[in-house]
Amino acid sequence: MPPVEATVRGEETEGLWRAAVTAAGDLVYQWDLATDRIAWGGETEQLFGRARRRTPLDGKSFAERINAEDQSRRSRVLAEHFAGGDDYDVEYRVRADSGEFNWVHDRGQVERDGTGEPLRVHGTLRRITRRKLNEARLEYLANFDELTGHFNKLRLREALEYALADALRARRSGAFLAVGIDSLDRINRAYGSELGDGVLVEIGRRLDRCLRTNDVVGRLGGDRFGVVLNGCTAAEALHTAERILTVVRRSAVDTAAGPIHVSVSTGILLFPGQAHTALDAIARAEGALLKAKTAGRDCAALYELTEEQERGFRDAMEIGEQVKTALKEGRLQLAFQPIVAADGGSVDYYECLVRMRATDGRLVPAASFIPVVEQLGLMRAIDRYVLDLALEELTAVEDVRLGINISGLTAADRSWLRALNARLRGRSDLARRLIVEITETAALHDVEDTARFVQAVRELGCQVAIDDFGAGYTTFRHLKALTVDIVKIDGSFVRGVLDSPQNQLFVRNLLSLAKAFNLRTVAECVETAEEAEFLADEGVDLLQGYHFGRPEMLPPWRAAPGVATARRARPDGLAGSPSIVAG
């Protein structure tokens, strides 16, 4: 049997190359920079049009076909490549003879002469219009309701969170309306869901006509819309609700089955006096909407607070102001509690716990203000501040590991993740010594979102722990989805564990679940040597509690030689928070 030919002749190689390029639908090019001439290989008609004479044969005429919005980006990437920077890899739009624009992925490499000057560019163009359209559609669906074109529930909630924060900051009021279409289910049963969808779309259009340009409309789901009214009084909110009722009932909705008369009901919530978070605002407005429907539909109902609730809100607002002032003046500080190895007692890492220094110098424990801060929607600012303080400690001291707690709102906050990414970029030495803790109940609120957050944090090199493990009924499926590194057994199962067979059984089950995924475990609230010994014998890896150390404002490394405390200077001249500097 004759040997198989391992190589092909030059002309056959060129034939194979041309066939592969044609089959892929790509174009290859060689751009001579001295003459500005471009030589193309492949089917240029697919990108530029069928008139070969109009195919751009020089850099100038090709550049004229590039979408004006994309030219600067392409020029910048090309210049950086010529200067010896990154690879030439850029996406932009090119105009065809028909006037339509096609997206292309342009990849190439410069060829240089003996002195290093660019001679010519060799590259490929691949059409990616279909991919770009798919990406644009996915981005649209991530923000907008596909049926009505309004914000989806996620974006509506974000807009409401922003309006709440702005109202608190500017000391002004606003309102959130939950608008429900009356008896839409009957329309769907009588005429079909397609006609019912048409009614939904028309009601959305009528809502748009009733509102100001700075108001926001979104789809809450089913037969309900949500409306954010920025900067309005209670009287103005009621007037807007009445206008919506009137506009909807005034004329029938034209459908394929003929005109159908429709009405809506509205629930009104005023903020920030009646709610401090978007989730609370939506839930209470929908409660008021149910009240309106119960009252006979085609009417509006206002969410009302009891006298006790109003007093609680006033107290919460006062505490919130104290926390915001402390944050501005650098009076939020960290206390550090050791977490030790169960098999030897050596410190594995320290958990950072936030404390507030009152104006008279007293330390205010977190339990006195964190619940209120969460209600007021200030946890994102607190979590960002704690991150900055913890990273200062890690930067100053090379052999310490720290854990920080973040709220469920922060776990869904892309800006916090961007801040973490920016601070840890190129600093793997910091990332590997930082542990981010998120409570189990927050993690289970939206497992998919939390899983994406956990993955992003771990890709930076940090570890992630689930705090209060066992309080939220984590399942095998949840742990598999979340891919965390550490689980911290909730203290309620550790306290009195020696005297409670139920707690002992629960701890063993939680340990078995954690070990199945090779996760390290921490037992919280360990207060006696006997509890520590029992938990270590059961297989807990790390222990935390008063038996090993209370949270301390002055951790051991601050007293180490060559390390001193300092006050961080603030641009506004106020005293900063304590930080660490190498002495």
From TrEMBL:
Q: According to the lineage, what is the superkingdom?
A: Bacteria
Can you say what this protein is called? Diguanylate cyclase/phosphodiesterase
Provide the PAC domain boundaries. Answer: 88-140
Q: Which organism is it from?
A: Tistlia consotensis USBA 355
Which residue range or ranges hold the GGDEF domain? 172-305
Record-annotated EAL domain positions:
316-565
Q: Which InterPro entries match?
A: Biofilm_reg_signaling (IPR052155), EAL_dom (IPR001633), EAL_sf (IPR035919), GGDEF_dom (IPR000160), Nucleotide_cyclase (IPR029787), PAC (IPR001610), PAS (IPR000014), PAS-assoc_C (IPR000700)
Listed PROSITE patterns? EAL (PS50883), GGDEF (PS50887), PAC (PS50113)
